[in-house]
Amino acid sequence: MWKCNFAEEPVDLKLLCLKMIRKTGIILVATALGALVLGGIYFLKETIFSPDTAYQVVGETFIDYIPEEGYGISRIYITDEAWDSLAKSDAFVESIISEVSAQGYAVSEKLIRESIDASVVSDSFVVTTTVYAKEEGLAVAINAALQNAIVDFCLPRQEVAESFIMTCPTDAEKRDVTKEVLVAALIGALLGFGGALVACMVSFLMDDSVYLPVSFEKRYGLPMLGTMESEELPANAEKLCKGFQKLAVAGVCEAVSTEEVTERLQDKATGVYSAGSVSMTKEWLSNLAGADGIILAVAAGRRDGKQIERIIGFLEKQEITVVAAVLCNADETLLARYYRPGIFAKYKKSSAKKQAGDKA
Questions:
Q1: DSSP 3-state assignment of 194?
Q2: Distance between CA atoms of residues 176 and 232, nearest Å
Q3: In this structure, are 257 and 307 located in the same domain?
Q4: 356 occurs within a structural domain
Q5: At CA 234, angle to CA 229 and CA 240, rounded to 5?
Q6: Which terminus of the chain has a smaller tally of CB atoms within 10 A, N or C?
Q7: 271/186 Cα distance (integer angstroms)
Q8: Is the pTM of this model over 0.70?
Q9: 283 located within any domain
Q10: Tens digit of each residue's pLDDT (9 = 90 or more) over 113-123
Q11: 38-83, pLDDT tens digit by residue?
Q12: Is there a domain that residue 189 lies in?
């Protein structure tokens, strides 16, 4: 039988999709938490912990540069980064403090630097000033002082033809952080979604559990009779166990009931008995005296793929024949969706299994 090591096993895309669909709840919760956390943090930062930015004023100052000879336009202008640095320079800040203090407001250099911004948004001839403050009047005063400082700065400069204030608001707007909070929440949602998706995929790729009989057969090169509920179990047991007089059912972990597997196979194979969970000791090996081979009872979804590999290697060294395996505690709904058309198929008990359940 063809055998493929787990490390080289190709990704089963259908199984991956089915497992990811089951993780939809986790992904949605992570997405919601990401939006709530990042959006909430930004909201608290801009409202509760930054009361000094409650009001906002935006002004515009026009600066006309002298054209250069031969070009008709000026190739020299003050950049966006330069305006931001100039607005927060000592000369500008001192000028702003002097003008604002004359209006009765007590301000510090730190407050001024944290509350102002000067930038070239779209046109190099227009400098946009933005001021945030805790009081409406203070915001208006700081913005007017900043625009006056820009005009005063341009007056002695030879490359500037003229400069004047285009818009200087006399009232401030209550700062609305809704849009900014929504953007932060969207970023948080994307980060949460992406993080959860990556985590789920890594978890799947690192999971060496056995979920499907075919995965076991490909990985370990041993036939599997089926699951405890599968329709093919009786036929496979009669075929593969034929010719063996005594077979021991051994579990790869404590979660498997070898007695239940033994009972299920009792009338399908000769001399089937329970040997309990595999223990790599001489005492356990003594339980196999006289047995022609072993039927391994494997638990589904236990993340014990390497342990199964170790047990099979141990049995091979002891020259004990592993006839086949049975998948216990299998997710029959997952198997139904995997083998049948569509991804939303549901597991239905066979008529024989229904009758057995009714009798019980």
A1: helix
A2: 66
A3: yes
A4: no
A5: 125
A6: C
A7: 64
A8: no
A9: yes
A10: 988 999 988 77
A11: 999 988 887 776 656 678 899 999 998 887 664 555 556 788 889 9
A12: no
pLDDT of residue 340: 78
Neighbours of 130 (CB within 10 A): 18
Residue type, 147: Q
Residues 6 or more apart from 153 whose CB is under 8 A from it? 86, 91, 92
Judged on CB neighbours under 10 Å (0-12, 13-18, 19+), 253 is: middle
Instruction: Provide the pLDDT for residue 343.
Output: 52
Domain boundary among 174, 197, 224: 174
Tell me the C-alpha distance between 341 and 125, whole Å: 65
Cα–Cα distance for residue pair 181/14, rounded to 1 Å:
38
- Rounded alpha-carbon distances, angstroms, from residue 286 to 9, 40, 65: 35, 64, 99
Give yes or no: residues 341 and 213 share one domain.
yes
Could you tell me if 89 and 137 lie in one domain? Answer: yes
Write down the H helix ranges in 155-250.
178-206, 213-220, 233-240
Is 19 a member of any domain? no
Question: What one-character DSSP code corresponds to residue 216?
Answer: H
What is the C-alpha separation between 303 and 347, in angstroms, rounded? Answer: 23
Q: Where is 339: in which H helix or E strand?
A: helix 332-339
Range of the domain at 149: 55-174
Both tokens of residue 136? 């409406």
> What is the reported pLDDT for 52?
63
Burial 180-201 (b: 16+ CB within 10 A, else e): ebeebbeebbebbbeebbeebe
**Gap between the Cα atoms of 297 and 48, Å rounded:** 60
User: Do residues 270 and 140 share a domain?
Assistant: no
Contacts of 97 (CB under 8 A, 6+ apart): 107, 108, 109, 112
Q: Tell me, what's the pLDDT at 125?
A: 86
Specify the number of domains making up the chain.
2
Residue ranges of the chain with per-residue pLDDT less than 50: 1-2, 70, 350-360
- What CATH code is carried by the domain that includes residue 141? 3.30.70
